[in-house]
Amino acid sequence: MRVLLIQPSHTFDGGSRAPECIPLGLTYIGKVLQNGGHEVEILDIWLHQYNREQTIEKIKKLDYDMVGISALSTQYSYVRWLSDTLKKYNNGPIFLGGALPTFSAEVVLKNTKVDICIIGEGEVTIKEMMDNIGKLDNVEGIFFKEGNEIFKNPSRPPIKNLDEVEFPAWDLIDVEKYITLNSIGNKRKMQVVSGRGCPYNCRFCSKTFKGYRCRSVKNIIDEIKTLIDRYGINHIDFLDELVVISKKRIFELCDAIEPLNIQWSCQGRVNLVNYEILKRMKKANCVSVGYGVESGSQKILDNMNKQIRVKQSKEAIINTLNLGMTTAVQMMYGYPGETLETLDETVHFFDDLPYTGVAFLSPTTPIPGSPLYDECLKNGMIKDEVKYLESLSAGYLALYTKAVMKNTINFTSFSDEDYWRLKKDAEWRIFKHQFRRFPFYFLRRYWLKTIKYYKRWGIKKLFHRVYMALKRFASGRPA
Predict the structure, then answer these.
(1) What integer is the mean pLDDT of 409-435?
(2) What is the Cα 276 distance to its own chain's centre?
(3) 322-349 b/e with 16+ CB inside 10 Å = b?
(4) 71-91 pLDDT, tens per residue?
(5) In what order do the strands lie in the sheet with 149-152?
(6) Cα–Cα nearest to 260, from 227, 216, 214, 215
(7) For the purposes of burial, counting CB atoms within 10 Å of the CB of 261, is it exposed (0-12), middle (13-18) or buried (19 or more)?
(8) Which one-letter DSSP state was computed for residue 137?
């Protein structure tokens, strides 16, 4: 069959920020379909920033028998429009994979033109689905509709041995454009996943993959070597939720990756790293480790079931920076239990840290699949799932847009006006403190940014951006 795979955008006007990562999910599925003898093409709407009219023109010209879309929960509105548009020009079946169908399959099937929802991992499911078109009741791991009736098939067990999953079909995407967009200087960067899932159960987190499974180090290194040979890659971003799962595992990975002489970055967990582990990672050319710190208040961390201590967060950040690596500290705001006192603890969390990343406090957003989302459904804070998914499409974690401010669920006792005022005030206090401690770092940072964006945008657009940044600065918001 001729199968069209689509990476949708997040906005209809083509103005969303370009993707930072290759669409690994689609390329894994694309490889399975290629191995099954199917003709496969990827329409990367997000990468190429197509607007509605451009997308429609592309669809009109494509010849296919069925369509597969990969989508996050925040892309519900776009998927609804896209599936409706696809059916206007080709009545072939549409299947949907990713977090959106995994946690909201019934909503999707009832309210869009999607025919089949793949739940969880898709590599085995897609093979069986293609072999059983017309008799889908035999396929585990899918929901599907016939007419107005929705059928829920039994779930599929997770893939036990991830080494059996073949490397992605990179040939289906514009690899060079991804490398150009996400590389700085002479870095040629691509992404790899070394495992799936996470053994922790943070209450705000939505996990597409249950439990935790990891690939063998040999299998990971073979993929990296392939990327080096084929695309000249010299930097790997590990996209796992948790690369540093244990000392034994990370030391084994470091021993294998060090001889490749490439840089790499990953996500860590503050309770699973120490100076010895980070030092070994640095020696193996790790240049950056991200941490989900979330809050500087132990009360809020306990409410989240984060299973970390504030002291561990500070130690992890200090050790990482002292070893010469960079770090990205992810923070949240407005989690149930947030008060003026807990917010103040988050602000002062940065007081004695040599950290210069301007903090953006992400407003707490219940995502389908998370315990927090289920609680909101149960207690009536989310009354209509369709409307809520539509509100996520307005801009999950976006910065102070009217749509986000209107639709964000306020779990605090603050008024809605105070909720946003206090958030901006906290971010501003963190920024001012960092600027006073490291003024030359920030002056250099903004000068380099100015040069970079002048080359990209030209003088007119640069002045407009600087003007908007100064407006934010004057209104008490980080520039």
Answers:
(1) 91
(2) 29
(3) eeebebebebbbbbebbeeebbebbbeb
(4) 999 999 999 999 999 999 999
(5) 39-44, 2-7, 66-70, 94-97, 116-118, 142-146, 149-152
(6) 227
(7) exposed
(8) G
- Chain segment 332-355, per-residue pLDDT in tens: 999 999 999 999 999 999 998 888
CA angle 146, 69, 180 (to 5 degrees): 175
201: its two tokens: 């159960």
| Percent of the chain predicted with pLDDT > 70 | 91
The terminus-to-terminus CA distance of the chain in angstroms comes to: 50
Residue type (1 letter), 357: G
Distances in Å between the Cα of 448 and the Cα atoms of 120, 302, 443, 444 are 42, 40, 9, 6
> Would you place residue 101 in the very low, low, confident or very high pLDDT band (cuts 50, 70, 90)?
very high
Q: Phi then psi for 347, rounded to 5 degrees?
A: -60, -45
CATH fold, domain 2-152, is Rossmann fold (3.40.50)
CA 424 to chain centre: 24
Is residue 317 within 8 A of residue 324, CB to CB? The reply is no
Evaluate whether 260 touches 224 at the Cβ level (below 8 Å). Answer: yes
Show me where the domains of the chain are located.
2-152, 183-364+409-436, 438-479
pLDDT: is 407 or 286 the higher one? Answer: 286
3-class secondary structure, 96: strand
> Is residue 364 predicted with pLDDT exceeding 80?
yes
Distance set, CA 195 to CA 105, 210, 255 (Å): 25, 12, 18
* CA 355 to chain CA mean position, Å: 23
Mean pLDDT, rounded, of the chain: 90
**Could you tell me the sign of the dihedral formed by the alpha carbons of 65, 144, 165, 248, in that order?**
positive
- CA 330: distance to chain centroid? 13
- Residue 208 has a pLDDT of 84
Taking the C-alpha atoms of residue 121 and residue 439, their distance in angstroms, rounded to an integer, is 47
Alpha-carbon distance values, 42 to 29, 116, 171, 374 (Å): 11, 19, 10, 34
Cβ–Cβ < 8 Å for 64, 2: yes
CA geometry: angle 292, 298, 302, nearest 5 deg: 80
Cβ-proximal residues to 183 (8 Å cutoff; 6+ apart), any chain:
189, 235
DSSP 370: S
CATH topology of domain 183-364+409-436: pyruvate-formate lyase- activating enzyme (3.80.30)
Query: In angstroms, rounded to a whole number, what is the distance separating the alpha carbons of residues 338 and 294?
Result: 12
- 208, HSE (Cβ side, Cα atoms, 13 Å): 20
Q: DSSP letter at 130? A: H
Q: What pTM was estimated for this model as a whole? A: 0.89
Lookup: tokens for 237? 């971003």
